[in-house]
Specification:
289 residues, 8 helices, globular
Length: 289
């Protein structure tokens, strides 16, 4: 927990439990700003990352205890750094700290500048005087609360964009709930990016997975057209080519559906069973019916 906090705030913290110093101050350029938000009348030891997170670490006795809750939120690149940070701080204060959590908010900018985001580390227990309470606040784990946080973050982002005079807007709903026929594209992640950058792996599986999903999404309109009318209607090359491009797909419809939809289920199953991101060559189950 202490190491995680040091990495996110770009600081140097001594881990009292393991007698080890975690120093991420060299990567501080990637950490734009960091702050600890606390409920009113919180004891002073909660204001410093080292005393806060060491107390959290030492206070949990079970080996499998959840030490903190983390939110990783994308912030609009259309906003400047100050607006991004104020957005995250305002939302954290309203939705998390006002519920009794202590939250450390850290704004990160990648070297490319394409993925500005915030890490929010939150305590799992409320304060009881000068110490944490004996029981964790389990009501924070309810699905309804999580969905409320997703919606409120989307509204906060859109409000910030509106105040900045930007036309862009976000939608917290899933693609399915928005009526968008597309498979969600997974994140590549820092681990795979680092492996590729250092040359450990030429083509990490996460990169392969993203290309695979992009390919599936590219052919989904064709698949839907085949399922609906048995043909793919193409445009743009003249009358003769047009006539040749009206393809009867009675038999190919089933083949195409198996090749795409079944393989996607195999992909999901393989990720759960053996940790690999790319599906094996054998066919999966038919999920198109």
């Amino acid at each position: 927990m202490v190491a995680a906090a040091a990495y996110r705030n770009g600081g140097k913290i001594r881990d009292e439990k393991y007698d080890k110093i975690h120093d991420y101050s060299r990567r501080s350029k990637g950490v734009v700003e960091s702050v600890i938000l606390r409920p009113e009348n919180s004891p002073e030891w909660t204001a410093k990352p080292d005393t806060l997170w060491n107390t959290v670490e030492l206070g949990e006795k079970r080996k499998d205890a959840q030490l903190a809750r983390e939110f990783i939120l994308a912030v609009p690149p259309e906003l400047d750094a100050k607006e991004q940070f104020n957005l995250a701080v305002g939302w954290s204060q309203k939705e998390l700290v006002n519920r009794g959590m202590i939250a450390e908010v850290s704004l990160h900018h990648t070297k490319t500048g394409n993925n500005p985001h915030v890490h929010i580390l939150c305590t799992m227990r409320t304060l009881d005087g000068d110490k944490f309470s004996d029981k964790k606040a389990t009501e924070w784990n309810h699905v309804g609360v999580l969905m409320g946080w997703r919606e409120s973050w989307g509204k906060s982002v859109n409000l910030a964009l509106e105040k900045a005079g930007r036309p862009e807007r976000v939608d917290h709903r899933s693609l399915a709930d928005q009526g968008i026929d597309r498979i969600p594209q997974p994140k590549i992640g820092v681990a795979a990016t680092a492996m590729k950058r250092r040359g450990v792996v030429d083509d990490p599986e996460r990169f392969q997975l993203v290309r695979w999903v992009k390919s599936l999404n590219a052919v989904r309109p064709w698949l839907r057209a085949i399922e609906k009318s048995g043909e793919v209607h193409q445009e743009g090359m003249g009358k003769t080519w047009w006539e040749r491009s009206l393809l009867f797909m009675g038999q190919a419809r089933q083949v195409t559906r198996d090749a795409l939809m079944d393989t996607w289920r195999t992909l999901l199953n393989s990720r759960h069973s053996d940790g690999h991101d790319i599906p094996p060559q054998d066919r999966g189950q038919d999920i198109s019916r």
